[in-house]
Amino acid sequence: EAQVEESGGGLVQAGESLTLSCRLKADNLAMGWYRQAPGKGREGISCINWIGTTTYVVDSVKDRFTISKDTAKATLYLQMNDLKPEDTATYYCAAGGFLSCSPERLRGGDYKYWGQGTQVTVSS
Predict the structure, then answer these.
(1) How many CB atoms lie under 10 A from the CB of residue 12?
(2) DSSP code for 101
(3) Which residues contact 43 (CB under 8 A, 6 or more apart)?
(4) Do the Cβ atoms of 34 and 42 come closer than 8 Å?
(5) What is the DSSP string of 63-89?
(6) Dihedral of CA 46/108/1/27: which sign?
(7) Which of 42, 54, 76, 78 has a 20 to 30 Å separation from 90 between CA atoms?
């Protein structure tokens, strides 16, 4: 059974907003968001520590994307504002097996659990 499950992707127009959700079916762990555009490698977007007190968002989207976590619901969110066509990608949620969040953790991408991905398409 999948330990993380994303939802909330879809087709939007440039400038619109979208919120992705990811439910963690395990004890609270550090979590992260990644994306992969067609023909490109996986890109780490954002991470949060297990209790939700430390977050990191990459510079390329930090003015538009916000990560948050409802620890009671064990659900991770990615609020994406002012979406651009270059944000088009499959977005993946990842979780555990560690508790922290840092740029190094995000770049390492060695989370234990990965979701199946949710597609975000932004039309111009």
Answers:
(1) 17
(2) -
(3) 34, 35, 36, 37, 58, 89
(4) yes
(5) TTEEEEEETTTTEEEEEE-S--GGG-E
(6) negative
(7) 54
